[in-house]
């Protein structure tokens, strides 16, 4: 049986008629499952380069079909991880344009989107909508390899609930309870963190900031925000959140953190853990389960996951690596397949390398277009050569094989560095990732040495996905300064040779040279973009960050001069994800502010100079900047364009062949 699971919104272009929303339908993705096996999976953001994309996942669908070697006509079922939300959007679209054909049912809406996007007829009868948390629950249990388990799905909310607790015994699912709005841990975290200056999708930043704070400072006010009841029940009093106003000065984005902001972060994390521990403890006592599966956005809280693993409440814990709504696409497919064609238990998920592999045929031509800026060579032993660079202090962009599905880079689309010098943390944060200096980095450790460096339970295979923050062994903390967080923990990835042999080889070579079987690992991107996916994505990120080297497959790429800037011979264009606009007349009334804006809901326009506006308006990606301008590119405009390039608001290409 061939099933494609979907998540995401309904539009694939900014001009489409369906309402844009980032509250639901974010993290668009497609997953294809054949006879119980995941064949391919891709988040739409990797294709359209919009973080947490809420577009319809056409690019991801095409990848999945291509990877499976099939067409849309070969798909037995299409599964979508939401239901009535689509009907609300369709009704709103019809009310806004009464001339449009009304689409009333979710299946008809999805059939319309698929048929129009793929150019083939897809019948509504081939489509199944799956409740959001039913999909999350399936995404957690089905790949776990367990025969029976307690399953907890929790996030900000879905169409069916704000979370679900399920008991699975020998493959038979029983819903124990659904979490209502007053039990949404995702909404709790999101609402509570606003005074720190963070918003939607920034929860992981607050989790990283929390160890710098003291939760006792605001513990008493926060205790009034929730009530614990017997049997793992609890209630969050959202009507009392206004009492937090004035607790700390509101930090504006980009402003420095005061100690009180760190203390607030610590209190938020502590409160979430109290409720989550209470919820899971109550249900495990009532069910007697010794295995646990977690999914939903809250399952990405690796600090809590690590503390949960230390309780020894469970013999084994599996956290769905793609616990975002992208993972719900996987869950929807698995749910539909299990319902239509029940089968014995699946093998445990060992990897998430289900995305695209770099197209190496395009690599050398792409690099030659940038030959004024970079050199490249093909290495006979790339792992050894890269390890030598790491030993000597280099920071490297590392692209190998198929990209990862989910929010973690696990050695195929990673930035890697020496984990020992404390300065590497600051360097990668500020010069490469362009993000807050406090943010921690993960260590990737060889499985053979994991227990020497980190405090791990016996089920190390479950620690291959950066799902748990665990204590670094006390005698290794001073050694691993760049990957040990301020509280002595690390979000570890255990690397197995049989799962990712090339990444394992890189770390082994670094171990041979330094005696340390660990490298620093973070996702290959800057703060303005999703993780790189293609050869072109990797080159663009390399040229606009402080990375020393780029490795793609066996190719080692170096910059001739680290001070890269926009030059006359480069070619400008606008990505499909941005548009130019004029807005806000100034006092003299003679002109308007020129700006660039991404084509997504809630995006903010970025002001640009009239010169940049004129140049971008005239640039269509076919001519060099010098030819478009007719005059030399001045330094101020070059600097402005480079900043826009870093923010991925414009596209810059090398010389045309």
Q: Could you provide a short overview of the structure?
A:
The protein has 20 helices and 27 strands. A hairpin with an 8-residue loop joins strand 6 (149-154) and strand 7.
Please tell me about this protein's structure.
By secondary structure, the chain is an alpha+beta fold. 31% of the residues lie in helices and 19% in strands. The protein has 20 helices and 27 strands. The strands form 7 sheets. Strands 13-22-21-14-15-20-16-19 form an 8-stranded mixed beta sheet, with helices on both faces. β9 and β10 form a beta hairpin. α5 packs across α11. The model has no long low-confidence stretch (mean pLDDT 92).
**What share of the residues does DSSP label as strand, in percent?**
15-25%
Main sheet strand line-up: 13-22-21-14-15-20-16-19
The helix-and-strand class reads alpha+beta
Shape call: globular
**How many helices?**
20
| Strand runs, count | 27
The end-to-end distance, rounded to whole angstroms, is: 46 Å
Average pLDDT over all residues: 92
The largest sheet is: 8 strands, mixed
Instruction: Please give the radius of gyration in angstroms.
Output: 25 Å
**Model regions low in confidence, pLDDT < 50 over at least 5 residues:** none
Helical fraction equals: 25-40%
